[in-house]
Amino acid sequence: MGEGEAESPPAAERKGTEEEEDDFGYRLFPDRNKKPQSFLVRSLFTFHNKCQLMLKLTLETNPYARLLLEALKQSGCTVFNDRHFSCENCDGCVSGGFDAATSQIVLCQNNIRQQSHMNRVVTHELIHAFDHCRAHVDWFKNVKHLACSEIRAANLSGDCTLMNEIARFKFGLKGHHQTCVRDRAIRSILAVRKVSKETAEKAVDEVFDACFNDLEPFGRIPHSKADAKRAYRDFQNRDRYTANL
């Protein structure tokens, strides 16, 4: 979760309070352990208002998010704005996360400042939510499961588009997209799990091919908004075709 980008789930229950135990990334999301503030109190903070407005725009207009919301609904996991999203203050290095214990997406209101960033964070975390809905993902004990979802999120969310990589001053030719996906998946695991870099790399490499080629629900790698729009149309047409069988 470096460089202010959204990456992976903070995940679930704490095993204990001792420092040597894995806290599953909760240290990055301090508001998770605080008593929820009233709507009136939260509404007084500009960050929270802006976060809510950007989230609403993403859910209503972004083709990546709209496709994922529809796919989640068809999988029996309807997403509700006020239940499944939470704008909170986070550690300075992260932008968002998926809390599998509550099936809630955390949006870091102090770190998300632009609509394009919000679009990418919401998409990334909705992919985790989709994986959580459709599969028996063991976020806490099976690092390969986490690695697979991180690979899919980096691959399908737009995290590794050419323009985003140029903005990070990273350039490459053949195979650069795969390299970006692998690197970001490894960084995500290291941010939220107390494992060695070697363990994270091994987990990612062992599942990379299968998870990189799992393109559900997009059916393609959406390298741009135009790709995402086409994928959304194809997803809707797929549903119509199935309904007529």
Automatic annotation (TrEMBL):
| UniProt-listed InterPro entries | Peptidase_M76_ATP23 (IPR019165)
Name the UniProt key words of this record, in alphabetical order: Hydrolase, Metal-binding, Metalloprotease, Protease
Alphabetical GO CC annotations of the entry are: mitochondrion
Listed EC numbers? 3.4.24.-
Q: Which GO terms describe its molecular function?
A: metal ion binding; metalloendopeptidase activity
User: What domain of life?
Assistant: Eukaryota
Give me any GO biological process, just one.
Answer: mitochondrial proton-transporting ATP synthase complex assembly
Q: What class of enzyme is it?
A: hydrolase
Region called Disordered, residue ranges: 1-27
Q: Do the record's keywords include Metal-binding?
A: yes
Q: Does the keyword ATP-binding apply?
A: no
Q: Which Pfam families match?
A: Peptidase_M76 (PF09768)
- Family listed: Belongs to the peptidase M76 family.
Q: Could you identify this protein by its name?
A: Mitochondrial inner membrane protease ATP23
